[in-house]
Specification:
Layout: E1 4-8, H1 30-43, E2 47-50, H2 60-67, E3 75-81, H3 87-100, E4 105-110, H4 121-139, E5 144-147, E6 152-155, E7 170-173, H5 177-186, E8 189-192, H6 197-213, E9 219-228, H7 232-242, H8 248-256, H9 264-275, E10 281-283, E11 286-287, E12 300-303, H10 305-317, E13 320-326, H11 330-340
Parallel strand pairs: 1-2, 1-13, 2-3, 3-4, 4-7, 7-8, 8-9, 9-12, 9-13
Antiparallel strand pairs: 5-6, 10-11, 11-12
Helix pairs in contact: 1-11, 3-4, 4-5, 5-6
């Protein structure tokens, strides 16, 4: 079973040797994040997520533009926040970036509130669906006649579109009913954070049914951390080491800084931590300790290369076709995964 395997470049000040203990050399900078992307490309990854943290790190769009001429094979999954840019302007930026990358752009739509906003879940996701529909129309090179709740736009077809002439695949995640409905209506790849295998199965089934209700199909992606070592004991020891300098107050403060710290998805990650055993494992090889020091994706696949590979293949059997992985420090864990697991996976760019 072929899948897309992506890595993560820590644009949001999320790189550590010890979680919760920042080091100057690992803080987000163009040079540091560039090196992570180049390590992932050299290792053979298909794509790399360029995350967006409104008050953290460096800008994802500017970074993508700078990386376009420095890379040749790896795709870039650019995270964009709904509300940051006027939709026609965003479409123009995306088309330009795709041209600079010779067709290697993919897009991660983020629906969280902007700073200072106080928008309910339903209208916020309605706005997100509007944006995705506008982007698809303009990036498909079509005229736009949009009379929505948030934008009213009538535009001729853009002169510049993507290399393919089509909108890049739109990746989107969210666990609430409103988020699920938005994904079913307009996304191409539905992303989920770590969860138990029965929960993954339920989400895939639910989202497949929701999308079918709109006459659509979805592909499924899974965002998770990894810790790969020669033996399981070494992998678990490294997991413990990551938390060895973290105090609870620091972890609470890190999670609280995120704009989506109260979302349904983040709450689910907290539930997993609470359900885990004393060592933080909620099921075989799925360790929730990472979530003690970050919001969002809060668990890691921990084990030997064969154990990590088996876990990924189990997710594939449930319908997952794309993985977005990361580990600490990001460049070092990227190299380990590339050498010990990636060659055993049949993988390539995801066509949505």
């Amino acid at each position: 079973m072929a899948c897309e395997v992506s890595w993560f470049s820590a644009l949001c000040d999320d790189d550590y040797e010890f979680l919760g203990a920042p080091e100057a050399a690992l803080k987000s900078s163009f040079e540091h994040c560039r090196n992570i992307v180049l390590t992932a490309e050299k290792g053979g990854f298909d794509n790399v997520l360029l995350p967006s943290g409104y008050a953290l790190g460096i800008d994802s769009t500017a970074f993508a533009a700078a990386m376009a001429p420095l890379t040749s094979t790896i795709r870039m999954l650019l995270a964009v926040r709904v509300g940051e840019a006027w939709p026609p302007q965003l479409a123009r930026q995306l088309a330009t970036l795709d041209r600079m990358m010779h067709g290697r752009l993919t897009v991660n739509i983020i629906s969280s509130e902007m700073p200072g906003e106080n928008m309910g879940s339903a209208p916020r996701y309605h706005r997100t669906v509007e944006l995705m529909m506008i982007l698809k129309t303009l990036l498909n090179g079509e005229p736009l006649d949009h009379d929505g709740e948030f934008w009213k736009l009538k535009l001729d077809p853009p002169r510049i579109t993507t290399v393919s002439g089509k909108c890049p695949p739109l990746y989107f995640g969210g666990l609430s009913p409103d988020a699920r409905d938005a994904a079913a209506k307009a996304a191409d790849v539905y992303l989920m954070w770590p969860d138990t295998m029965p929960a993954v199965r339920e989400i895939v089934a639910d989202m497949t049914k929701r999308a079918a209700g709109y006459g659509r199909t979805l592909k499924f992606g899974y965002r998770c951390h990894v810790i790969v070592r020669e033996t399981e004991a070494e992998a678990r020891e490294y997991a413990s080491r990551l938390l060895s300098k973290l105090d609870p107050e620091t972890g609470d403060a890190i999670r609280a800084k995120s704009l989506d710290s109260q979302s349904v998805g983040v709450q689910r990650q907290a539930q997993l931590r609470e359900a885990a055993g004393d060592e933080g494992f909620v099921e075989d090889n799925l360790w929730t300790g990472i979530g003690r020091a970050r919001s969002g994706c809060g668990a890691a696949i921990v084990g030997t290369p064969d154990q990590v590979l088996a876990k990924l293949r189990a997710y594939q059997a449930e319908g997952i076709e794309a993985f977005i992985l990361s580990g600490y420090p990001h460049a070092a864990e990227c190299d380990l995964f590339a050498r010990h697991v990636l060659p055993k996976l049949e993988h390539g760019a995801l066509v949505a």
